[in-house]
Design a protein that fits this description.
single chain, 698 residues, alpha+beta, 5 domains, 6-stranded antiparallel β-barrel, 4-stranded antiparallel β-sheet, 19 helices, 22 strands, 49% helix, elongated
Length: 698
């Protein structure tokens, strides 16, 4: 077998020493502006690549070095070169291969749109020459004296801000508005431009090439970027750390200057601008940039400080290997040989990244949903969740059975797979045959006992007493009422006598019409007083039981008009209602059986569904069920005092089954309604579909 030649433009340069001190070399591909790190064995093989025969290359490496090179090692380097497209393409076969690779990389319109929506990078300028001039002009900024001077100014700035701390903190209150957010966005854009300029200047100062600056769109969110890939050629870890930290150092420089300016400037636009730059840089820019869990400056600082290139990819591979070994014990070798402490560190870092990204991408999905119109927002949110969260999980789950089949089945492998199968079955197999919903139960026939007149309680029926229809429940005594009746009767008697005398007196006959009007008024007052006397006796409109009598309703106490003194219920009747969610509306039908379990632990009550409301409940008229009162329905109190459900709910009305006994008071609990079996996945799907249809206005 003869090896194909390597591309002539490939360059091999000394690289930084590995963590264990072993030498490395950096392979530079100028066509793709890409750097690849290789070790001593790969370097020796590439040096002798021109020999063309794998066996001869391995023999030459063994003869010239102490490395135990084998022909298989040469073939591994060949495969590495082919994957990296480092082989020189010549002849029809190579052309066909390149065309096939280009076709394979060609994206469908949908995938192109998806990838460009999630992330796209736009190169705007080639700043290399300008950065070289600027780096020479700002050479004084790269000295120890300048750094110490800026540190002293930072301490001074903190001291001056501390003397006006209340005023500084109060300024953040003005940022929580549309105008404040717009001003912060402008300040951040300026700070980010300064940040990227810092990366470019430091890279140029250390002899690297900076071929591009531009804008990157991450989920349509604009971010500036600087191409500092050439920093891979730097052999010193300290130099690479300087390039990584240059952006943060530039923002610190800006923050220090803005803090000093805010401390000494008078109130006005200039001081407001200084506050925006200072506050946004200290609190937002540095917090984001120094986060090592995303691929910002903090990540590259951690990667170079640990001397672990491609930190995330390698940490993720180790974490997946660790997860598979913990679950299945495949016995696979780790992706790379690392000391146990370093391996644990990388696995812990990968786990932290996964948890952080889960929360971050869910937050971005919700933000995208709210920033666009409903239908597009739902689609983009689904893309976010599906691409960044669901897709990696499904890919890993799909790999487990394939890996288990390839390595053979054992109890260590079969047990987790069986658990996964059981969990999957629990999600997709219809087994949930009941709808459980918050509800309450009460007497079907009841009425509030309310006073029609004010007065002093004279006679009171006891709590829980059984009464007949028409039986007095409460008797009120108001001395003004019989006194008004007696005065009216006396006035009536006097007026009647006066009218009888006037009929014999011609001179007084002209006053007869006035006397008749006075008599009519007195009769009306008498009827009103007698009616009030009757209303002072509160009678039962039907036979039942008196409940919920106030404790302060005792003989001799005064009560006002329209005061509730209890509730009269018919214990032989029963009515219940439950509030079900939108996903369960099609599963509950009139006539099916149900059971009500009171929350106080009493025996359950057998029920039958009487009716299901066709429309969602706009207002919750049963305050006992509201979450603000300890109930199971999430609701909030609106400005008008009414309770508004947070989600679409439907009222189910139920009655006693087989003429069962009633209840003596309103009880809150849980209603379990028999329904057709459904899977958990089906419920989630229906609920998601209902949300989509509702939010999309369908």
């Amino acid at each position: 077998m003869r090896l194909p030649p390597l591309r002539e433009d490939i360059r091999l340069m000394p690289g930084p020493p590995a963590r264990d001190g072993a030498p490395t070399w950096t392979l530079y591909d100028p066509a793709l502006h890409r750097f690849l790190r290789v070790g001593r064995l790969e370097f020796e093989i590439l040096l002798r690549w021109g020999m063309g025969v794998p066996a001869a290359i391995a023999e030459a490496v063994r003869a010239a070095t102490t490395l135990p090179a084998r022909e298989a090692d040469v073939l591994d380097v060949l495969r590495f070169a082919q994957r990296g497209r480092l082989i020189e393409a010549s002849g029809p076969a190579a052309a066909r291969t390149l065309i096939a690779e280009a076709e394979a990389r060609r994206l469908s319109p949908a995938m192109w749109l998806l990838k460009n929506y999630l992330f796209i990078r736009v190169r705007l300028i080639d700043p290399d020459r300008a950065l070289g001039v600027l780096a020479r002009a700002l050479g004084f900024m790269f000295t120890r004296g300048f750094v110490l001077g800026m540190a002293a100014l930072a301490v001074l700035g903190f001291y001056l801000i501390g003397r006006q701390w209340e005023s500084y903190i109060a300024g953040f209150g003005s940022l929580f508005s549309f105008e404040g957010a717009a001003e912060v966005a402008v300040a951040l854009a300026f700070a980010k431009a300064f940040h990227e300029l810092g990366h470019g200047l430091m890279a140029k100062r250390l002899g690297c090439r900076v071929p591009g600056m531009g804008v990157a769109l991450l989920v349509m969110w604009p971010m500036l970027w600087t191409d500092t890939t050439d920093a891979w050629r730097l052999t010193g870890r300290h130099q690479r750390l300087l390039v990584d930290a240059a952006g943060v150092m530039a923002e610190l420089l800006l923050a220090v200057a803005a803090s000093l300016a805010w401390s000494i400037l008078p109130d006005g636009p200039s001081r407001s601008a200084a506050f925006l730059l200072s506050g946004s840089t200290w609190l937002i820019s540095l917090a984001v940039n120094l986060n090592p869990l995303m691929r910002f400056d903090g990540y590259f600082l951690l990667s170079d400080w640990l001397e672990e290139p491609n930190l995330q990819e390698r940490a993720f591979a180790l974490a997946r290997w660790r997860l598979r070994e913990a679950l299945f014990g495949f016995g696979d070798a780790p992706p790379e040989a690392l000391p146990p402490a370093r391996r644990r560190l990388l696995v812990a870092y990968a786990a932290a990244c996964w948890v952080y990204r889960l929360g971050l991408f869910l937050g971005i999905a919700v933000l995208v949903y709210h920033l666009t119109f409903k239908l597009l927002g739902l689609f983009l949110m689904a893309v976010e969740v599906g691409w960044f969260i669901v897709r990696p999980i499904l890919n890993e789950l799909a790999m487990w059975p394939r890996r288990a089949r390839a390595g053979g089945m054992s109890w260590r492998v079969a047990l987790p797979l069986a658990g996964l199968a059981l969990i999957t079955a629990a999600l997709v197999v219809p087994w949930r045959g009941a709808v459980v919903a918050p509800g309450l139960i009460r007497a079907g026939r009841q009425i509030a006992v309310i006073t029609a007149e004010p007065g002093r309680l004279d006679r009171i029926s006891a709590e829980g007493s059984d009464v007949a229809a028409g039986q007095p429940l409460f008797t009120l005594d108001n001395p003004d009422t019989p006194q008004a009746a007696a005065m009216a009767r006396a006035e009536i008697a006097g007026l009647k006598a006066r009218l009888a005398g006037q009929s014999f007196d011609a001179a007084a006959a002209q006053d007869v019409p006035v006397a008749w009007r006075q008599l009519e008024q007195a009769l009306a007052r008498l009827r009103d007083a007698e009616a009030r006397e009757q209303r002072q006796v509160v009678r039962a409109p039907f036979a039942g039981r008196l409940v919920d009598v106030p404790r302060d309703a005792v003989p001799g106490s005064w009560v006002p008009r329209r005061e509730q003194l209890g509730i009269l219920i018919d214990p032989s009747s029963l009515l219940a209602e439950a509030m079900i969610g939108e996903a369960d509306i099609g599963r509950v039908q009139p006539g099916v059986t149900a059971h009500f379990q009171p929350e106080n632990g009493e025996s359950p009550v057998a029920l039958v569904v009487r009716d299901v409301s066709p429309g969602a409940v706009a207002w919750l008229d049963a305050p006992e069920l509201a979450s603000v009162h300890g109930g199971g329905v999430a609701a909030r109190r609106e400005a008008n005092g009414r309770l508004k459900p947070d989600a679409a709910i439907y009222r189910v009305t139920l009655a006693a089954a087989d003429g069962g006994a009633g209840v003596s008071s309103i009880q809150r609990g849980t209603v379990r309604i028999d329904a057709a079996p459904v899977s958990i996945a089906g419920q989630i799907w229906r609920r998601a579909a209902s949300v989509v249809m509702r939010e999309a206005g369908l």
